[in-house]
Design goal:
This protein has 549 residues and is of the alpha/beta class. It is 39% helix and 18% strand. Helix 10 links the parallel strand 7 and strand 8. It is elongated. The two termini are 55 Å apart. Bound molecules: sulfopyruvate (SPV) and magnesium ion.
């Protein structure tokens, strides 16, 4: 089955004249052609899925779905807006109920031009006066003057933007009690004025006058009927009389009223959803109807893949913050009502990182947060960071952020490393090391060039070495404990951890060792920042963290 969902872009590429031609061919053909009522994008889709080849955009049901009467209370441009949703959601040709044409010939001209621009394949106008009243209300509604109505038909045909646009003239003479002769006289005048088809309407509960009309009409041009009131007449009888164009005019709206009323009543009375759930369309069905699958595919094509990354947080060591770390590691220290680790996870999820794993060790039972997976390094007391990271090796697959569990940083820093080109990117504070006491910084960075601060300097910088022992004149900054690995970078990272293991060095290696080894083999890019982060090593740092939030 062809894909029923159309996004706007593909509709534009399908904007040939096929809808107009399809409506004309079907209406002019002697084969049965059933037009099913729709009043919204959703109902139009449902009609198409049922297998119909044409849509009737009913004035009655579009008005009613807006909570309005069928008395031209909705402006014609409001109706046009609804039609646009219907066109966008289906490929079917639409015959719209144009009521009286919303005024005189001049209003019909503009209406027909706008319908053509919106790919509405045809319009039906009725020989009554604006504002109209539904045909099934009252008796002897006044009819339009024949010549004046013929002027509306001519003006409409002269304004069509596509040769195949269909104008159906609707004869109300039978409904208004003017008799068969008047109905035939009007129909002939409308045909001669250029109408492509005649809709002969009746409100009798039997089809007698419609069948009679068809007999006298002798197929001078196609007829269209609306058997709402003579619904018990078998369709076969109508078709045999040559009435091949049949509009089922309002049944989707009426069906939805019944369903909505029953559903509302049931939920109101039971104050629960239990009895209703199995009787209504599934939420999945709603997603399918409106084409969520297409959006998902488009997201893969157009959204940056980075938005769905993952992160590994290294939080196995306990830290030494006195009583604060007696029963929990420092990543669980409360920072204004939330553990440090939660605040870090929040920052990660702000940039779309949803799959977060934390490597825990010291007091591991205390490290548990909703939505964060845990990995245990049970040998945390005698191993280092590289070993902890290797515990999470199977999570380092595809783009991955690696971050220390005791750091806090502003969102933009993470966004910065996500947007920086490179398979391995480190966030390095160009100022930090200079502001801290000598010997206090472990993750000192030597890069191929430092941060110049110059506005035109956009040369990428690369790591040469990371260690506590960089000579002062070679210090480019301090790694803040935040790194991004691309899919390729993640492969290199896993390879390097495997190499450390085979050399018997994995257990003792820290991140500076691991990153320096990587930098010897692959480019490790540096994204310079200036402050706006902190790590928590001392009680003073905890105080700073409270102020950071
Ligand atoms: C409509 O559906 O709005 C129609 C058909 O005009 S009828 O209600 O039968 O007049
Ligand atoms: Mg109508």
């Amino acid at each position: 089955m062809r894909d029923k969902y159309l996004d706007t872009a593909s509709i534009n590429t399908h904007r040939t004249n096929s809808r107009f031609a399809a409506l004309r061919e079907n209406i002019c053909s002697p084969q049965p052609f059933f037009l099913m009522e729709a009043h919204s994008g959703l109902s139009a889709k449902i009609v198409e899925e049922a297998g119909f080849r044409g849509l009737w955009a009913s004035g009655l049901t579009i008005s009613a779905s807006l909570g309005l009467r069928d008395s031209n209370e909705a402006s014609w441009t409001q109706v046009l807006d609804v039609l646009e949703f219907m066109v966008d959601s289906t490929r079917l040709p639409i015959l719209v109920d144009g009521d009286t044409g919303y005024g005189n010939f001049n209003n019909v001209r503009r209406l027909v031009r706008k319908l053509g621009q919106r790919q509405i394949a045809g319009v039906c106008i009725e020989d009554k006066l604006f504002p109209k009243t539904n045909s099934f209300i009252g008796e002897r509604q006044p009819l339009a003057d024949i010549d004046e109505f013929c002027g509306r038909i001519k003006a409409g045909k002269d304004s069509q933007t596509d040769d195949d646009f269909v104008l159906v003239a609707r004869v109300e003479a039978l409904i208004s009690g003017h008799g068969m002769e008047e109905a035939l006289r009007r129909a002939e005048a409308y045909r001669a004025a250029g109408a492509d088809a005649i809709l002969i309407h009746s409100k009798l509960s039997s089809a007698t006058e419609i069948l009679d009309f068809a007999k006298h009409w002798e197929q001078r041009c196609p007829l269209v009927i609306v058997p709402t009131m003579y619904h018990s007449t078998p369709t076969e009888v109508l078709l045999q009389a040559g009435l091949s164009n049949i509009i089922w005019a309002n049944h989707n709206l009426r069906a939805s009223i019944t369903a909505m009323r029953e559903t509302s009543r049931q939920i109101f009375e039971t104050q629960s959803l239990g009895e209703t759930e199995s009787r209504v369309a599934t939420v999945k069905d709603v997603f399918r109807l409106v084409g969520n699958a297409e959006l998902e595919a488009a997201e893969k094509r157009y959204l940056p893949a980075r938005a769905t990354g993952k992160a590994v947080i290294l939080a196995a060591s306990g830290g030494d913050l006195g009583e604060l770390t007696d029963h929990q590691p420092k990543c669980m220290v409360d920072i204004r009502g939330k553990p440090l680790l939660q605040r870090l996870a929040d920052t990660l999820s702000h940039v779309g990182i949803r799959e977060i794993s934390v490597v825990r060790g010291y007091r591991k039972e205390s490290v548990a947060l909703a939505g964060i997976r845990t990995i245990d390094n049970d040998r945390h007391a005698e191993t280092g960071e590289a070993y902890s990271l290797s515990c999470a090796a199977d999570r380092i697959d595809g783009e991955t952020v690696v971050v220390y569990g005791d750091v806090l940083f502003r969102d933009y820093i993470l966004e910065g490393i996500m947007a920086t080109d490179g398979d391995i990117v480190l966030a390095v504070d160009a100022l930090g090391a200079k502001l801290k006491p000598p010997g206090r910084v472990r993750d000192l960075v030597a890069a191929d060039h430092g941060f110049s601060g110059h506005y035109l300097d956009d040369r990428p910088a690369y790591l040469q070495e990371m260690s506590p022992d960089i000579a002062p004149q070679s210090i480019s900054g301090e790694w803040i404990g935040l790194a991004r690995f691309s899919t390729q970078g993640a492969v290199w990272l896993r390879e390097e951890m495997a190499a450390l293991e085979s050399e018997g060095l994995l257990e003792k290696a820290d991140m500076p060792v691991l990153l320096t080894r990587l930098a010897a083999k692959h480019p490790v890019a540096i994204h310079y920042i200036l402050a706006h982060w902190l790590d928590v090593d001392t009680l003073t740092d905890v105080g700073n963290a409270l102020n950071f939030i």
